[in-house]
Write a structure and sequence with these properties.
alpha/beta, eight-stranded parallel beta barrel, two-stranded antiparallel ribbon, 12 helices
Length: 382
C-alpha cells in the first residue's frame, strides 16, 4: 500500500508520520473519536467503596487533556453481588458510584476526550468472603476456575443468567444516561463472559455450552440486552482475548474459522467494535498471515478494531506485577500496521499509566522524552 498523500518526507518525516497516522478521527457507530489513541483499561483500586473520587477524575482527565482520544476506564463491576472481589475497585451501580462517574465523564469531555466505562463481572475468579458483598458465591458457566477440573463454585442457573444479563444492560443504560460516550463489555482474560466463551471453563450441556456458537450465546444475549437499553447510535465495544489469567497458552480459537464462529454472532447482535487483547501487538495470531488478533477481528467482522499489547514498551506487562520495568520500544511497526488499516485504534496501557503526557509526546514527535516503564507507577495515580 502506498503512503497517504499527506504523509511528510524529509528530516521531520518520522515525527510527522506519527502525527499524520494517529491524529485522524475515527467513527465508532455514532461516536467520532478525535484520534487513534485509546487508553487501555487498567484496574487501579483507588475507589474506596466503589466510588471514583477527585483523584480518579483527575487521572483520566489529565490523559484526555494530553491527547488521548478515547478513554476506556478500568473495569467497573456491574450490579450483581458476585461481580467483584474488591471494595476498592469502582462499581457502575449505586447512586454515589454513578454520581462519581458522571463527574469523571464530564471532566474528560471538558478536556477534549471521549470515554467509555468497561463493564465487568469476574465470575469464577471471585473468592467467597471477599468484598464488596462477602456472602456472594463465585459463579460461572460450570463452577470451574481456569485450570480446574472439579467445580469449586456454582454453575449458573437460568435465573443467574437473567440477573447478570440484566445487570450489564442496566449498567449500559446508566452509562448513556450519565453522559458516557459508549460502553465496553469485558469479555476477556478468563472473567465471566470469557468463561462462557472458552471450552476450558464451559462444560455446560444446555444451550449455553458445546460448540463455539453455543458458548457465545451468553455473550450474545448480553449484547442484545445492552442494545435494547441504549440508543441505536451508542457504541458497544467488546473486549476479548485468547489468553486467560495465568494461562497464556489458552486459546479461544485455533483457526480464523473458529474465531469467526465466535465473533460473527456478536457483531450481528450489535457489537460496534472489537478490542482484541494481546500481550504483544506485533505477534501474528494464526499461521500463514501477519495479521494480529485485532487485524483478524476486523477482517472477519468488518467492524472497527482496537489493538493493544506492550505498545511503546518492550517487555510483557504481566512482569510488572512482580515489580519489573520495561524499556522503551519504537512504534514504527505499529504505524506501519495502522497505515495498512489492519486495525483502527491503538490502546496504550503501561506507557500511559506512567506518563500522562505519552500521547502528546508521540503526536508531537517527542520520542526522545519517552521513558522506560517503572513498575512503581502502578502503586499511585499520576
Amino acid at each position: 500500500m502506498t503512503a497517504p498523500a499527506d504523509l511528510p518526507t524529509g528530516a521531520d518525516a518520522p515525527a510527522s508520520r506519527a502525527a499524520s497516522i494517529l491524529s485522524r478521527p475515527v467513527a465508532l457507530n455514532g461516536l467520532t473519536v478525535p484520534n487513534r489513541i485509546a487508553m487501555a483499561p487498567m484496574t487501579r483500586m483507588f475507589s474506596p467503596g466503589g466510588v471514583p473520587g477527585e483523584d480518579v477524575l483527575s487521572y483520566y482527565a489529565r490523559r484526555a487533556a494530553a491527547g488521548v482520544g478515547l478513554i476506556v476506564t478500568e473495569g467497573t463491576y456491574v450490579g450483581h453481588a458476585s461481580a467483584g472481589l474488591s471494595d476498592r475497585v469502582p462499581r457502575f451501580h449505586g447512586e454515589e458510584q454513578l454520581a462519581g462517574w458522571a463527574k469523571v465523564a464530564e471532566a474528560v469531555h471538558a478536556a477534549g476526550g471521549t470515554i467509555v466505562p468497561q463493564l465487568w463481572h469476574v465470575g469464577m475468579v471471585r473468592e467467597q468472603g471477599r468484598p464488596p458483598f462477602p456472602e456472594a458465591p463465585a459463579v460461572g458457566p460450570s463452577g470451574l476456575r481456569v485450570g480446574e477440573e472439579e467445580a469449586t463454585g456454582r454453575a449458573m442457573t437460568r435465573q443467574d443468567l437473567d440477573d447478570v444479563i440484566g445487570a450489564f444492560a442496566e449498567a449500559a443504560a446508566a452509562a448513556e444516561r450519565i453522559g458516557f460516550d459508549g460502553v465496553e463489555l469485558h469479555g476477556a482474560h478468563g472473567y465471566l463472559i470469557d468463561q462462557f466463551l472458552w471450552a476450558g471453563t464451559n462444560r455446560r450441556t444446555d444451550a449455553y455450552g458445546g460448540d463455539a456458537v453455543a458458548r457465545a450465546k451468553f455473550a450474545v444475549e448480553i449484547v442484545e440486552a445492552v442494545r435494547a437499553r441504549v440508543s441505536p447510535e451508542f457504541p458497544v465495544i467488546f473486549r476479548f482475548s485468547q489468553w486467560k489469567g495465568d494461562r497464556y497458552d489458552a486459546r479461544l480459537a485455533e483457526t480464523p474459522q473458529e474465531l469467526e464462529a465466535i465473533l460473527t454472532p456478536l457483531a450481528e447482535a450489535g457489537v460496534d467494535a472489537f478490542h482484541a487483547s494481546t500481550r504483544r501487538y506485533w505477534l501474528p495470531e494464526f499461521e500463514g498471515s501477519d495479521l494480529n488478533l485485532a487485524g483478524w477481528s476486523k477482517k472477519l467482522t468488518g467492524r472497527p478494531a482496537l489493538t493493544v499489547g506492550s505498545v511503546g514498551l518492550d517487555g510483557d506487562f504481566n512482569r510488572s506485577f512482580s515489580g519489573e520495568g520495561a524499556p522503551v520500544r519504537n512504534i514504527d511497526e505499529l504505524l506501519d500496521r495502522m497505515e495498512r488499516e489492519e486495525f483502527d485504534l491503538v490502546a496504550v496501557g503501561r506507557a500511559l499509566l506512567q506518563d500522562p503526557e505519552w500521547a502528546r509526546k508521540v503526536l508531537e514527535g517527542r520520542f526522545g522524552e519517552l521513558a522506560p516503564y517503572d513498575a512503581a507507577s502502578a502503586k499511585k495515580l499520576l
